[in-house]
Amino acid sequence: MVKQREAELDLASKRLARAENLIRTNSITPEELDTAKSNHYAAKAAVSSAKANVAGSNAAIATAKSQVIEAEASVGSAQARIERLKSEVNDSTLRAPRDGRVQFRVAQPGEVLSAGGTVLNMIDISDVYMTFFLPTNQAGRVRMGTEARLVLDAAPQYLIPAQVSFVADVAQFTPRTVETAEERQKLMFRIRARVDPELLKKHKPRVKTGLPGVACVQLDPQAEWPARLEVRLPQ
Predict the structure, then answer these.
(1) How many structural domains comprise the chain?
(2) ∠ CA 121-125-130 to the nearest 5 degrees?
(3) Model's pTM, two decimal places?
(4) Long-range pairs for 98-102 at CB < 8 Å and ≥24 separation?
(5) Is residue 79 pLDDT above 90, yes or no?
(6) Is CB count within 10 Å lower at the N or C end of the chain?
(7) What is the pLDDT of residues 94-130, one digit of tens each?
């Protein structure tokens, strides 16, 4: 539009110049000169108006750009607040480090706890074992991974397969004197027989902790389990 108005101004200027030359020789009337001057001034005003429109458009563009920058800053600030709130929610959410079962709740809803405070008592039911004791001559024959059978007092009809996962390196019960071989045989060593985690997954609802029972261990790897100690599991 500015280019068009400038072209019209250039044409009006040339017509005005010709009219001023012609008026000297009385080739045109004064009215025609006045018309040429009017057209020149109008074209000049139109150029100024077009340039003013350009300036206004540039100002509007600058304002829009500043609004875009402001909006982007607002978006960034809002995103930062969202991330902060997510972080606070994550920090305020209790997550167990592994699967387990809640035994009891220590803290009640609405209570304020200090850092490291206990909220729940939870047990890991994927790591279940029975602890029992054997005298020296038997504990010395137990190897890691030795097969065992567990019979719980609460469910004597089942025999649960297990494997020895721990043998204490020191005696748990020590007589007052251990000078003779006979006395040394009285030393008792702590043993653990661990139940296969995959088996526990299959019977997760039945898994209990703290139940007493009896552990049978295969001291001779060549010996076969008697029929009464064959594995029997619930369906």
Answers:
(1) 2
(2) 105
(3) 0.55
(4) 98/124, 98/126, 99/124, 99/125, 99/126, 100/124, 100/125, 100/126, 101/125, 101/207
(5) yes
(6) C
(7) 888 888 888 888 998 888 888 888 888 888 888 899 9
Q: Are 191 and 134 in contact (CB under 8 A)?
A: yes
Residue with tokens 């068009």: 4
Shared domain check, 74 and 147? no
The C-alpha atoms of residue 198 and residue 122 are separated, in whole angstroms, by: 20
Torsion angle (degrees, nearest 10) of CA 112, 115, 121, 123: 150
Query: Is residue 98, in this structure, part of any structural domain at all?
Result: no
Q: Is residue 113 part of a domain?
A: no
Domain that holds residue 29: 2-89
Residues 68 and 153 in one domain: no
- Largest CA-CA distance found in the chain, in angstroms, rounded: 153
- Please state, in angstroms and as integers, the Cα–Cα distance from residue 95 to each residue in 87, 100, 148, following that order: 14, 11, 35
